[in-house]
Design goal:
about 575 residues; about 0% strand; disordered C terminus; AP5Z1_ARM; AP-5 complex subunit zeta-1; ARM-type_fold
């Protein structure tokens, strides 16, 4: 115990001398010994479980924390690791010393991490701190991470894949009712965030230097603060001269998209503009010669979206999920213009939309307005065509929202009719082929024919769900079946559906809902396909009528059909 008392006194004297000396923050040489003393005392408090030591350490650490924060703007020594060590003490013993750690944590994010997020050592230590205290932070300070998720995204984007795994362990804590929607936008725009940060680094020097001298000379943290000040207050940043770099600087500082991306705190949804010349030129330049950081961001963003959508499907309330879908529909055509990234993100967006509709079919009816708007844009671009195709499938699969949403189903049916008649009346499959190459024309016709097949199927399915629109469906499909201006696959499918509609029981089984509505009884002739794994399926075309039991009604056995030699089967 005597040796422990000696250790206490040595490290306490180090804390006391630094707490009294106001010049320690400008003395980089004192930083390592101070950090070592703070960590050692925290460990001693845990191992010795001494209330006396905790009471003696706390006042010194509180003074050092406040002084470090107040002098951080002109300090020559980094403070991130030191403040994290002190914060660990506050969280561990805050209840004993009556210290609320919430203001200290927010001060760390605002004053320190906003300046040192580009320092890999600080970033790694921050994630380790958040992982160690994950449960305490989520329970005691549930709004902390959702408030500062833009800063954490900036940190992971700049430091790259090396911190991806620890960041994914922290990621669920970023999601809250107030951050759920804007977080999606930030994840999709993660590559654009890298472009903005690299632009700042190019015009203002390194964000954080590797040595103390470069940190002192770097103007990039101040540049970030100035950019945020311009975004919030409208004040302008001083001109940097008439050279060529001033144009690059203005192109980013005047662009609202970049300004909104560079913020450190969540302030809700903001309108992001994708048409400004400065933003388009910066993105094109970054694609032509992508940096390693940008390449890593292009890989990480889809992985983060996987986790985000998984949490959204299982842990987020219905209202937020419903509010997210229109944002997905809008951003489907507004992504970072890199082919592989765009493909991976769009695939995840569409998968989530379909999964959400399967989980809550009423969303199809609730969101009929944005769905109809996207159907009207079906031929604007290939990605919009694919989105419209998937929406047509969802409309038909879920009967326009279900039996209780007849008005919405009728409006969706009319939109499908309009999309179908536009092609029949104007021969859209042939429009523009003369000005396109043969390969482009073939791809375009194939894509539009595929869309029309889905439209025809959706019309037939809605008519099966809602019998009141069945006469109009017959007319629509009849026009397609008798038309020869469409692809053969389209009119043959329409003809097949007309034949099915003449057999209501079979039509209900093939085109009806895949599961009965809540509270309703499965109708005769309707097959519950989800039970396919547990039900025996025969290849003999018997009709099984619902509600009938007892012996079979046929008067022959299987041996009358199968040859006698085939009685022995090979397994």
């Amino acid at each position: 115990m005597a040796e422990g008392d000696i250790d206490w006194e040595i490290h306490l004297r180090t804390l006391s001398s630094n707490a009294r000396d106001s010049s320690f923050s400008n003395d980089p040489a004192s930083y390592p010994s101070l950090l070592r003393s703070v960590r050692k005392l925290t460990q001693l408090c845990k191992s010795e479980n001494s209330e006396n030591l905790i009471a003696r350490v706390y006042p010194q650490l509180n003074k050092i924390f406040q002084r470090s924060v107040s002098s951080i703007s002109h300090s020559r020594s980094p403070s991130g690791l030191l403040l994290l060590a002190i914060l660990q003490f506050f969280i561990d013993y805050g209840e004993f010393v009556l210290h609320d750690a919430d203001p200290s944590l927010r001060t760390f994010f605002r004053s320190c991490l906003s300046r040192e997020f580009a320092d890999h050592e600080v970033a790694e230590a921050t994630l380790d701190f958040l992982i160690i205290n994950n449960k305490k932070i989520l329970l005691a300070f549930p709004t902390l991470l959702p408030q500062f998720y833009p800063l954490l995204l900036k940190m992971i984007a700049w430091n790259g894949e090396k911190l991806e795994k620890p960041f994914l362990r922290v990621f669920p804590g970023l999601i809250s009712p107030g951050s759920f929607l804007p977080l999606f936008i930030s994840l999709v725009d993660l590559p654009v965030l890298i472009v903005a940060l690299e632009k700042v680094e190019k015009t203002s020097g390194p964000l954080i230097g590797s040595s103390i001298a470069s940190i002192q000379k770097s103007a990039a943290p101040e540049m970030l603060l100035a950019l945020m000040d311009e975004a919030y207050t409208g004040s302008t940043i001083g001109d940097g001269g008439a050279d060529s770099e001033s144009e690059d600087n203005n192109s980013i500082t005047s662009d609202p998209l970049f300004l909104e991306l560079l913020k450190d705190e969540n302030d809700g949804l903001a309108q992001r503009h994708w048409t400004s010349p400065g933003m388009e030129s910066a993105l094109q330049a970054s694609i032509s010669s992508p940096s390693d950081r940008l390449k890593q961001a292009l890989k990480m963003a889809p992985w983060f979206l996987d986790v985000y959508f998984s949490i959204a499907l299982h842990d987020v309330n219905q209202s937020l999920k419903c509010a997210l879908i229109p944002m997905l529909l809008d951003r489907n055509s507004k992504l970072f213009p890199e082919k592989i990234f765009s493909y991976e993100v769009r695939k995840r967006l569409l998968n989530f939309i379909l999964a959400a509709f399967h989980q809550s079919p009423e969303f199809v009816a609730i969101l009929k307005k944005p769905i109809v708007d996207r159907l009207g844009e079906a031929y604007d671009s290939p990605e919009k065509t694919e989105l419209a195709l998937q929406l047509c499938w969802a409309i038909g699969e879920h009967g326009g929202g279900g039996a209780s949403h007849k008005d919405a189903a009728r409006e969706l049916f009319e939109s499908l009719e309009l999309l179908l008649y536009e092609n029949l009346s104007s021969s859209r499959l042939g429009v523009g082929d003369s000005v396109l190459g043969s390969s482009s024309s073939t791809v375009r016709r194939s894509s539009q024919s595929r869309l029309l097949c889905f439209v025809v199927t959706a019309i037939a399915k809605i008519a099966t769900h809602h019998r009141e629109v069945l006469p109009r469906a017959r007319v629509s499909l009849g026009k397609v079946a008798h038309s020869r201006i469409s692809d053969a696959r389209v009119w043959k499918r329409a003809r097949d559906y007309l034949g099915l509609m003449n057999e209501p029981a079979i039509c209900l089984s093939v085109l009806g809902p895949t599961r009965p509505s809540s509270g309703s009884i499965q109708k005769p002739g309707m097959i519950n396909w989800s039970e396919g794994r547990t039900k025996m399926i025969a290849n003999i075309p018997f009709y099984v009528l619902g509600g009938q039991e007892g012996p079979p009604h046929h008067d022959f056995s299987l041996m009358d059909i199968l040859p006698a030699k085939s009685a022995t089967y090979r397994l």
